[in-house]
Design brief:
The chain contains 15 helices and no strands. The chain is mainly α. The relative contact order is 0.16.
Length: about 400
């Protein structure tokens, strides 16, 4: 079997597992300054007027880590598969072992959709005033160092602690280093990597707008065109169109883009309408996932959590959280990506080996704490130095390409 809770992943050996249903910066400078859009009465003036553009949104870092923790707890204690008798992680239904934790953990998968919304917001914010080259370099140095380490770490855990997850073939592991394995219909070393394929497709689409130069009008048009394509793609049954526009995740990214426009230019009726449409389409996608994959959670609870998150993001966009400037949130945000990449296969393997040694709730807390420590080590000793080396090398390569003559 190729999956376990989060999409396409390494085969699971345990016989008790159930089948898997098919299944988280910057523009060219404008040649002339664009007039900001008109705002509704009482709306804020543009972010630039208040000097907010260069400020770090600390609260976003905190939300990202919270979303990653939601996903981790879900994978450890809240999936339909874990609630089956004889499941390979706990060996008996998790709802019998820790019923209260299970009830809350069943909704942790929404953390992935929260990632997508935040990604739309942060990518748009980071892209403003950048070139496509800068966009490309920033994405490579941000995504690949921790990802390469996660592949090596997860593979090492599977080899060292065999019996639960089956190691992929060497050629499949090597292909995973490209982050393009989904495009080749190959399995992931760890099932959580499916979201990276979704992110990459968003980057490719948004790169078109970055190349043109980001502006209020262009981002609005991009959201409208992408949204229209996302609505039409499923009924068109055109596989290439569905692949490119990614209707399952499109509206979450669009919500993030719209929220950033609110942050930068202030609110207006058009942006509220686009955000409302993104909410309507997003809650439908949540319901579809509940019915097709999750089963143990409900649409009402999922929609409520998603709505509360969007309302909080509206508060961020309108400046109500600007006073939150806790420095530790920066570190929290830095832990998010490594935690997400490493927690699943390795974490469930550890739980499988240690489940009889302590209270299951304590075990989950210990495992998560261990992966938070590992994430800090990855950020400090892998991401930082590797990012510097990659940036230096890529900047040199692009400079050489730019200066190369016809000969």
């Amino acid at each position: 079997m190729r999956g376990f809770d989060v999409g396409y992943t390494a085969p699971l050996r345990a016989s008790g597992a159930a089948r898997l249903p098919a299944q988280p910066l910057p523009p060219l400078a404008e040649t002339a300054p664009e007039r900001p859009p008109s705002r509704a009465p009482g709306a804020r003036t543009p972010a630039a007027a208040h000097g907010r553009e260069g400020r770090r949104l600390y609260v976003i870092d905190g939300i990202r880590l919270l979303a990653a923790l939601m996903v981790a707890v879900h994978h450890y204690a809240g999936t339909d598969r874990l609630d089956q008798p004889g499941n390979p992680v706990w060996d008996r239904p998790v709802s019998e072992i820790m019923p209260t934790v299970f009830r809350f953990a069943t909704y942790g998968w929404i953390g992935v959709d929260i990632f997508f919304v935040i990604s739309g917001f942060v990518i748009c914010m980071s892209c403003w005033g950048r070139t496509p080259r800068q966009f490309f370099v920033s994405r490579v140095i941000r995504l690949y160092p921790a990802y390469w380490f996660a592949i090596a770490f997860t593979t090492a855990v599977i080899v060292a602690l065999p019996g639960m997850w089956e190691r992929l073939k060497l050629r499949e592991i090597l292909l995973n280093l490209t982050m393009l394995q989904s495009g080749s219909a190959s399995p992931h070393v760890d099932g959580v990597y499916w979201t990276l394929w979704t992110e990459l497709r968003f980057y490719l689409l948004f790169l078109v707008v970055v190349a043109m130069g980001l502006s209020y009008r262009r981002v609005v048009v991009f959201c409208c065109v992408w949204g229209a394509a996302a609505m039409l793609a499923p009924i068109s049954e055109l596989r290439l169109l569905i692949l490119v526009v990614n209707p399952v995740a499109a509206w979450f990214f669009i919500a993030g883009l719209v929220l950033y426009l609110m942050y930068r230019f202030g609110q207006d009726l058009l942006l509220w309408g686009m955000l409302g449409l993104a909410w309507l389409m997003g809650q439908m996608e949540l319901g579809r996932r509940v019915d097709a994959v999750e089963h143990v959670s409900g649409w009402r609870g999922s929609a409520l959590i998603f709505t509360a998150f969007l309302l909080f993001m509206v508060a961020v966009a309108l400046g109500y959280t600007d006073r939150i400037r806790w420095k530790w949130l920066v570190t929290a945000g830095a832990l998010t990506y490594p935690l997400y990449l490493t927690h699943y296969l390795a974490g469930t393997t550890l739980i499988n080996r240690l489940r009889d040694t302590m209270d299951p709730r304590l075990l989950i807390a210990v495992v998560i704490a261990a992966f938070l420590l590992l994430s800090w080590l990855i950020h400090r000793y892998v991401e930082r130095p590797a990012a510097r080396l990659l940036k230096r090398g890529l900047d040199t390569s692009f400079a050489r390409l730019r200066n190369a003559g016809p000969g």
